[in-house]
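Support request, priority: normal
Reporter: lab tech (M.K.)
Component: structure prediction queue

Hi team, I submitted a job for acyl-CoA (8-3)-desaturase from Gymnachirus melas yesterday, and the status page still shows it as pending. I've pasted the exact input below so you can check whether something in the sequence is tripping the parser. The sequence length should be 446 residues. Please let me know if I need to resubmit or if it's stuck on your end.
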Amino acid sequence: MGGGGQRSEPGDPGGGGKAGGVYTWEEVQSHDSRNDQWLVVDRKVYNITQWARRHPGGFRVISHYAGQDATEAFTAFHPDQAFVQKFLKPLLIGELAASEPSQDRNKNAAIIQDFHTLRTQAERKGLFRARPLFFCLHLGHIVLLEAVAWLMIWLWGTNWILTLLCVVMLTVSQSQAGWLQHDFGHLSVFKKSRWNHLMHKFIIGHIKGASANWWNHRHFQHHAKPNIFRKDPDVNMLSIFVVGETQPVEYGIKKIKNMPYNHQHQYYFLVGPPLLIPIFFHIQIMHTMISRRDWVDLVWSMSYYLRYFGCYIPLYGLFGSVALISFVRFLESHWFVWVTQMNHLPMDIDYEKHQDWLTMQLQATCNVEQSAFNDWFSGHLNFQIEHHLFPTMPRHNYHLVAPQVRTLCAKYGIPYQVKTLWRGLADIVRSLKNSGDLWLDAYLHK
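Reply from support: The job had stalled in the queue. We restarted it manually and it finished. Here are the results:
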């Protein structure tokens, strides 16, 4: 034991540690199990074992940093540092020994410092301040599309041309509402936090029929550890696909053949885009709300279905209304999957490498060229790099910070990838084929 750190006693669920203790990185890293979790923020050591399940962002996202330096992630997710200090203070058990570096596991201190400077400059320029009017207008065009779709059918009848137009408008409104709830889930649009919370519940619950808490707990993990197996739920493919370069070889060597993975780039079109939202997400959301007794989110979600069926059953009947929303979900799912996967699936997907925030995010993300259409079509997620580096930055400011991010990446030789929209979409299929070929080679020859 170095530096006066305190080991946990047998049976101590808190993982030991006394206030005022001095610890080494080796000691901190030993507290990374489910029932014994420490982490470091700004050289302060915290025991989060008992508190992790009360973490507003979900216990998994904070547990992913157990035994690690969480300073960069903590800064990225908590814009009001003073507010969260009241939660941190009771968890404080000490600090790192003076002889210990501020970064763990040989991370590049220069990159971390330069990125911190870049963030500070962005804050001083006001790039983290949202423009409420931007988001209100965005919500307005979503509500307008929904209203016009219904009025059109109500006034002029249910012929197939008007029904097709209704499907298109509802698909656009649902997809754009998805990007908007994503904004409210990440950042403070309004000064009063309760209004941001209410708007997120309203958009994802009443406009889309989903759950805010389900989205928060899933999506924050993705941002905290993007493209990292067992930590990013977005790369948990349930053995239907193998992704990256490591997993296919592992499956091939172990002779795992749950699916014909060498053909996954072909059956992806039948399984991925069509089924993710209408089947997998729908079942998962309902199961999560009921199993966790999240009755508030369930009420918000049910309000969507009451509104929808109340509007469309008089026009299409029960069967027709179900068919209509099912087809909208089917189209929305395609839109969502292609947009979200073009920035991540072709990138590096692997196990935890304990990298600094900038390097980790850049290896897992890429951008798609800026244009008025690409910005609208993707909800500004074509700036995926900037969004991942600064998750609480409003989307209308991504293009302002992008040149500084690109310069910083060039300084340290970190690839900053920008693709055309069509190249980004094509790379999804290309990456699935490459992973499938790696699996087949390992399956047959190793």
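The two ends are 43 Å apart (CA to CA). Confidence is low (pLDDT under 50) at residues 1-15. Let us know if anything else looks off. Ticket resolved.
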